[in-house]
Design a protein that fits this description.
One of its GO terms (molecular function) is 2 iron, 2 sulfur cluster binding. It is a single chain. The protein is of the alpha+beta class. The chain has 22 helices and 33 strands. It has five domains: about 10-85, Ubiquitin-like (UB roll); about 90-185, [2Fe-2S]-binding domain (DNA polymerase, domain 1), CATH 1.10.150; about 200-295 and about 355-440, Aldehyde Oxidoreductase, domain 4 (2-Layer Sandwich), CATH 3.30.365.10; about 445-615 and about 765-919, Aldehyde Oxidoreductase, domain 4 (2-Layer Sandwich), CATH 3.30.365; about 620-755, Aldehyde Oxidoreductase, domain 4 (2-Layer Sandwich), CATH 3.30.365. About 30% of the residues lie in helices and about 25% in strands. The protein has a seven-stranded mixed beta sheet. The protein has a five-stranded mixed beta sheet with strand order 2-1-5-3-4, sandwiched between helices. A five-stranded mixed beta sheet has the order 12-22-21-20-13, sandwiched between helices. The longest helix has 25 residues, at about 570-595.
């Protein structure tokens, strides 16, 4: 929908107030609300009506504001999320908070608006009615289950608007409302595209339409002068620093703007900066660039073929890197095994599909470049942006906004150096929000994998050996390819004792999309290979599939395939044991159903996971600062970016109990490279464990300083009374008037800053060592129904048991589990990114509210002595078992294993036909 050039006065009502705007009549209503009226609670995720994030009420009916023109709203009454509260939270908004239904929060306004319309006509809706009403709005974080519960409970009058925080010493194990939750449900939260300066230059990116091509520019200055409102055009020649970035320094290889040729479709080659209104109507089809297509290859086999051209001259055979783990003599073990099974499985590209496309703005504050953007890794962004722009790192400041989903892709630099370049060169603020198409075209994906493995067991059912090999398509640039190649061999055995083992993971360059981090770093793919073979082994041995896993799982005292001794904290047996009654019930239900049905069959599948928290055998520190101000406020510099997982709340809970003061006295200073210590990137399930441990240490250190100052023992209790600390020990009470103490540069009278880096050891040439200090564990059961004629799958229930060590916040833990399972469902059944074909949320399918079945969560708590209060990481683990459990359930129902993931109806039906032909 073009904005048009002619303007008109258009009057309508918004949230009960009359407004009039002078805009082109065809301007999108979403743009008018956001840009003219500053009602940024209405989000833009696609501009195509696919994601529903821009949903508002027009005369009481939900509509996608991105599909409605301003002229169509004339005379209407529009309600946005900002109009729901009326000074205090509505019962629905409060219910969302109480149920943990808002995680990252980017889709929350639309869900609240649509649910409000439903509740106006059906105060007590059924689950089906909720699904029907919200079916057009996509959420990538929550898994939808808590959203459904929140809407159904909103009118039950059991939801209290009084969200009391736990008392001192009682934060761990409690589920207070997220400390950053209220702005998420009122529309006040600022995401990457919500706070652009009014005078900012708008930036557009010219991108390669080809997978591999050389290019040359024409008359850029002449073209710019011919288009009123354009301020400047920038190319790689304008970059003042080193035109190269990458998340892993030794492998950094990606230019901010390509020089002379592009290695992938969607690669940035030039920037156009101009006035906002002019840029809204700018057509880049006449941009002066001449392309010459070059041969390309999208598959690893093509890239590895003899004579294949090198994508990077310094990487022979287009091999980025490989990882390797070997223990014992796997060939001899397999030769002596009573039973062996072998298989091969391929997985596809998977798109992160966060609802917030990349967005941000940059400006100069004196001689410091400030970049305000959505990110998972502010310090990494700072360092790479400084390098590209030729600035000292202390002259670049990254200010993270709320991040509307990340899942790994927002670890990589995207627009940061681009808008930084424009601001640096023009002296004016520069703003850029990716379209859905360019976000999906240019950002990282989950690695496609081509895997094969053989596993052997003795006659009693003990696994004796395993050999695994996997090629991972890392695309045109390195990104997190080295991490995937190294993490996969460590984890490919699953959480099982495997005395003889060899695994290799290879990251191979192609001209495909860049593959990077996505919730699991390659482990979900490898687990599909391993867990489907475990089912086959169990069947051949005549052992129950759950019993087979229990027989072989790691336990306290076990050694991993890297030779790491696990002394304590191994909870996989407890997870599998917790599933026992659900497994027996599910199998009985499936048997009963299958005896009565011919064309539809039920299946039950199980799969396990383990996942090392944090970097693999590398330093992984986090630093936390906490202090008490003279007014009695506890200020927590919490630099772990919260992308919806809840670190703002969880890390504060940890620090509160370590310090011995209540949550209500804490004030957060979130990630900002100018004011908060580096808490590391939000990835690899590290924040609760690593940054949480730093927060625990900082809380305890601050407590010790106060107790020492008061000359009391560690048994004393602390209490804040206004601007005073009251310290009690036995019958003695001491009161410290904070206003009488000296204040430091940060305004603190007491402060502590602590760093934690997990104790790991490097892997040797055979992959032996201690790659992780803490592992998390889990197991899931999938129950489903397959239509044998159509190949369609109906999920019935998923039961998930996860060992979290200690559930710091059980409600947030459940939300992470449900959200991870939803992404695992997508990976298993529908998500397949095809370069050049699925670059939008219409053609690329992710689970909707109707695709996620009931989920029963079982929290297993086997404390790890290394984790804060015994806690382990969780974020990645919860996705890993879902897809293999679903694939195993499909095989249980149909007798066939789909070896190309996702298991679409076409692939399931083809496998069934192939089986029937062999019969």
């Amino acid at each position: 929908m073009q904005s048009g050039l002619e303007r008109a006065d258009i009057a309508f009502a918004v949230n009960g107030a009359a407004v009039s705007v002078n805009v082109p009549p065809l301007r999108r209503l979403s743009q008018v609300l956001r840009d003219e009226l500053q009602l940024t609670g209405t989000k833009v995720g696609c501009d195509a009506g696919d994601c529903g994030a821009c949903t508002v009420l027009v005369d009481g009916d939900p509509v996608c504001a991105c599909l409605m023109s301003a002229a169509s709203a004339a005379g209407a009454s529009v309600t946005t999320v900002e109009g729901l509260a009326n000074g205090r939270l509505s019962a629905l908004q409060a219910s969302f908070l109480a149920h943990g239904a808002a995680q990252c929060g980017i889709c929350t306004p639309a869900l609240l608006v649509a649910a409000t319309a439903l509740l106006d006509t059906k105060p007590r809706p059924t689950e089906t009615e909720v699904q029907d009403a919200l079916g057009g709005i996509l959420c990538r974080c929550t898994g939808y289950r808590k959203i459904i519960a929140a809407v159904m409970d909103a009118s039950s009058q059991v939801v209290s608007l009084d969200f009391r925080l736990p008392r001192s010493g009682q934060a761990i194990g409690a589920s207070p409302v997220r400390l950053d939750g209220v702005p998420k449900v009122t529309g006040a939260e600022n995401f990457g595209g919500d706070s652009f300066p009014a005078n900012a230059l708008a930036v557009l990116v010219v991108r390669s339409p080809h997978y591999h091509a050389s290019f040359a520019f024409g008359d850029l200055d002449g073209w710019a002068k011919a288009h009123p409102g354009i301020a400047a055009v920038f190319t790689a020649a304008d970059i003042p620093g080193k035109n190269c970035f990458g998340v892993i320094g030794p492998f950094a290889d990606q230019p901010a703007l390509a020089e002379g040729f592009a290695r992938l479709r969607g690669e940035a080659v030039a920037l156009v900066a101009g006035e906002r209104e002019a840029m809204l109507d700018l057509d880049l089809s006449d941009f002066p660039i001449r392309w010459t297509e070059l041969p390309h290859f999208l598959q690893p086999a093509e890239a590895q073929a003899d004579g294949a051209a090198l994508i990077h001259a310094n990487r022979p055979s287009n091999l980025l890197t490989s990882g390797f783990v070997e223990r014992g003599d796997p060939e001899a073990a397999l030769a002596a095994a009573a039973i062996t099974v072998s298989g091969a499985i391929d997985t596809s590209y998977v798109e992160h599909a966060y609802i917030e496309p990349e967005a941000g703005h940059a400006y100069l504050d004196g001689d410091t470049l400030v970049v305000v953007t959505c990110t998972q890794a502010p310090y990494m962004d700072r360092d790479d942006t400084a390098k590209v722009l030729g600035l000292a790192v202390d002259k670049v400041r990254i200010v993270p906004t709320a991040t509307g989903g990340g899942f790994g892709s927002k670890l990589d630099v995207s627009l940061q150096p681009l808008i930084g370049l424009v601001a640096l060169k023009t002296g004016r603020p520069a703003a850029l929000a990716y379209t859905r198409n360019e976000s999906m075209m240019s950002t990282t994906k989950r690695h496609p994998a081509e895997m094969k493995a053989t596993i052997g067991a003795d006659a009693e059912g003990h696994v004796t050996g395993m050999i695994f090999a996997g090629d991972f398509n890392t695309g045109a640039y390195a990104s997190w390819g080295p991490t995937v190649a190294n993490r996969v061999p460590v984890h490919a055995s699953g959480p099982y004792a495997t005395p003889n083992y060899r695994a290799e993971g290879r990251a191979i360059h192609t001209h495909g999309p860049i593959s990077g981090a996505f919730r699991g770093f390659g482990v979900p793919q490898a687990t599909i290979m391993q867990e489907t073979l475990y089912d086959e082994l169990a069947d051949k041995l005549g052992i129950d599939r759950l019993d087979f896993r229990l027989k072989n799982c790691l336990r306290n005292g076990s050694e991993t395939v890297t030779g790491q001794g696990l002394e304590s904290g191994v909870g996989i047996a407890e997870c599998l044991g917790a599933l026992r009654p659900h497994w027996e019930r599910a199998e009985a239900d499936a048997d009963a159903f299958n005896s009565q049905n011919r064309d539809k069959k039920r299946g039950v599948g199980v799969a396990s996971c383990w996942y090392g928290c944090g970097n693999t055998s590398l330093p992984n520190p986090s630093t936390i600062r906490v202090g008490i101000a003279a007014d009695g406020t506890v200020v927590l510099h919490q630099g772990a970016v919260d992308i919806g997982q809840g670190s703002n709340t969880v890390i504060t809970q940890i620090c509160a109990d370590a310090l011995g003061l209540p949550l209500e006295r804490f004030r957060l200073k979130s990630a900002d490279t100018a004011i908060s210590p580096d808490a590391g990137k939000t990835s690899a399930s590290r924040q609760t464990f690593v940054t949480g441990k730093a927060a625990e240490k900082a809380g305890r250190a601050l407590r010790e300083k106060i107790l020492r100052f008061a000359n009391v023992s560690e048994k004393a209790s602390l209490q804040l009374d206004g601007a005073a600390i009251v310290i009690r020990e036995g019958e003695a009470t001491r009161r410290i008037d904070l206003a009488t103490l000296d204040v430091d540069a940060d305004g603190f009278v007491f402060r502590a800053e602590e760093t934690y880096d997990p104790p790991t050891l490097p892997l040797d040439a055979k992959g032996q060592g201690k790659p992780y200090a803490v592992y998390g564990y889990g197991a899931q059961i999938a129950e489903l129904e397959v239509d044998l004629k159509l190949g369609t799958v109906k999920l019935i229930k998923i039961t998930a048991a996860h060992d979290v060590g200690r559930a710091i916040n059980p409600l947030l833990v459940e939300g992470q589990i449900e959200g991870g399972i939803a992404q695992g469902i997508g990976m298993a059944l529908m998500e397949e990114y095809i370069p050049g074909r699925t670059e939008n949320l219409h053609d690329y399918l992710i689970p909707t509210i109707g695709d996620v079945p009931p989920i029963e969560t079982i929290l297993v708590e086997v404390p790890d002595p290394e984790g804060p209060f015994g806690a382990k990481g969780l974020g990645e683990h919860v996705l890993i078992p879902t897809a293999p459990a679903i694939l195993n359930a499909i095989r249980h129902a149909t007798g066939v294993l789909v070896t190309k993931v996702p298991a679409t109806p076409t692939r399931i039906r083809a496998a069934i036909r192939e089986k029937e032909a062999r019969a």
